Amino acid sequence: MSAAVLGQSGELRLTLAPRRGRTVAVGQFHEGALQTLRPMYLDDSGQVCYLIVNPGGACMRGDRYRIEVELETDARLLLTTQSATKVYRTPEAYAEQRMDVRLGPGSVLEYVPDPLILYREADFRQYGTVEMDASATLVMSEIVTPGWAPGGRLFAYERLRMRNEIRYDGRLLAIDNLVVTPGEAGPGGLGFMEGHTHLGSLIVVDSRVDDGLIDDIHEIIEAHAGTVVAGLSALDGPGFVIRALADDTAELRAVLDEVTASLRARWFGLAPVNLRKY
Q: What is the pLDDT of residues 140-198, one digit of tens each?
């Protein structure tokens, strides 16, 4: 069966706006294998936290998921997942997720999903678009890890593609395109994860990103040099991208969380996020 004839597996739409000091949903729709848990407020800032849930437990052959998030003026959202996103074998039809985000003036989105785990013979495509006002804030992270395979072989998945397109104040700010095809290179070779197994990414866009902030983030990254190999690239505008490699999810989570905690404290006077889910 070709991928073209497979239908949508799950759809989720959220529209959020501030009401009486808190961000609330003013529009919400879910269908199929995507839904959210009840909203939570982790502090007194008014930022709402939503957990995305896939009742099916994993992505399978030919699955198609679509997420749309709109933040109206001054809305604040922390968006995460209930657990890791697992992608199992996808013979003849890859699994796909598309996420479209619109950020209004003064809005804030922190997207911090649990890891994406790719198992043997998995082929997964993830596409994201962000359209944001010049006064909005975007903090978006991702961690990718290989799942278990017979014999303990790593990188048994077929292909991963992650593409994010960000438009800032009406202009194209960045296209971040990542493709990993383990079958085309030895996993221990130069240029292929540099011998590491886990990949982390963090994209930050905010008008307050400047050279001083970039220097501070470099110091955070360097403090983790013993366990994480990471690099930072400034965007052609107020933002940056971090790409990091390690051999453990916790090592990547530590450096990405420290960066985001620094931003939360600097920009909003907020404590680090505690997303403990067990």
A: 999 999 888 777 776 678 899 999 999 999 999 999 999 988 766 554 444 567 778 89
- From CA 10, how far away is CA 3, in angstroms rounded? 15
Structure tokens, 119 = 């198992």
Burial 80-98 (b: 16+ CB within 10 A, else e): bbbbbbbbbebeebbbbbb
C-alpha dihedral, 257 to 262 to 268 to 269, nearest 10°: 110
Cβ-based neighbours of 249, under 8 Å, separated by 6 or more? 115, 143, 145, 198
CB-based contacts of 61, cutoff 8 Å, min separation 6: 88, 89, 90, 91, 92, 93, 95
Structure token digits, residue 121 = 């013979």
Query: Pick from 157, 176, 156, 150: which is nearest to 165 by CA?
Result: 176
> pLDDT tens-digit profile of 93-136?
999 999 999 999 999 999 999 999 999 999 999 999 999 999 99
Residue 65 neighbours by CB distance under 10 Å: 22
Q: Tell whether pTM > 0.90.
A: yes
Is the separation of the CB atoms in 175 and 237 below 8 Å?
no
C-alpha 219 chain-centroid distance = 23
Residue given tokens 């939360």 in the structure block: 264
Please tell me the distance from the alpha carbon of residue 213 to that of residue 217, in angstroms, as a whole number.
6
The per-residue b/e assignment along 2-15, b for 16 or more CB within 10 angstroms, e otherwise, is ebeebeebbbbbbb
Residue 111 sits at φ, ψ, to 5 deg, of -110, 110
Cα–Cα distance, 88 to 120 (Å, whole number): 7
